[in-house]
């Protein structure tokens, strides 16, 4: 299975140019004024362990395991992925500027695989976003944060103030869509990470203390 996962990831990443990406544009929104200078993704801000069932779908192929995310200081998280049987697959520490690989299973020790995980989790665990523009629609307050060629659209539910989506763009092309389900600001009960330029989808579902 691990050999199959490695080959599928390589195939997916090599096929990135096959699927075209249109420029991303908000629809059915209106611009609004905003006094706040920054917004935050607080879902991984607690020092507690965040434990999820992890499902990875790659070109109609499926792999599952357990993912643990832990904040180890103000800038760095530790991420560990194991198989359903408890065998460690990869373990790394990551911040917005640094990456330390503690362990990787030999079958997964490929540059493209490591870069795929590093880039995705760096975007997922990004906490603070300077606001460039603000919008709203019927259900959400939407903040655009720009940084060089990167853009982040953050959708906050108007009723409860919870972050429900982040759309990450590069050169104004949609790259990753993060969708959250949550009941409180510091913990996402589930997360769906969907790439737009190649067929990789990661789904995380909270493992409760009774499981």
How would you portray this structure in words?
The structure is a single chain. This protein is mainly beta and 211 residues long. It has helices at residues 2-14, 111-124; strands at residues 30-31, 38-40, 49-58, 61-71, 77-83, 88-94, 99-104, 128-130, 133-136, 140-147, 150-157, 163-170, 173-184, 187-195, 200-206. The strands form 2 sheets. Strands 1-9-10-11-12-13-14-15-3-4-5-6-7 form a 13-stranded antiparallel beta sheet. A two-stranded antiparallel sheet has the order 2-8. The chain starts with a helix and ends in a 5-residue tail after the last strand.
Main attributes of the structure:
single chain; 211 residues; mainly beta; 13-stranded antiparallel beta sheet; two-stranded antiparallel ribbon; 2 helices; 50% strand; globular
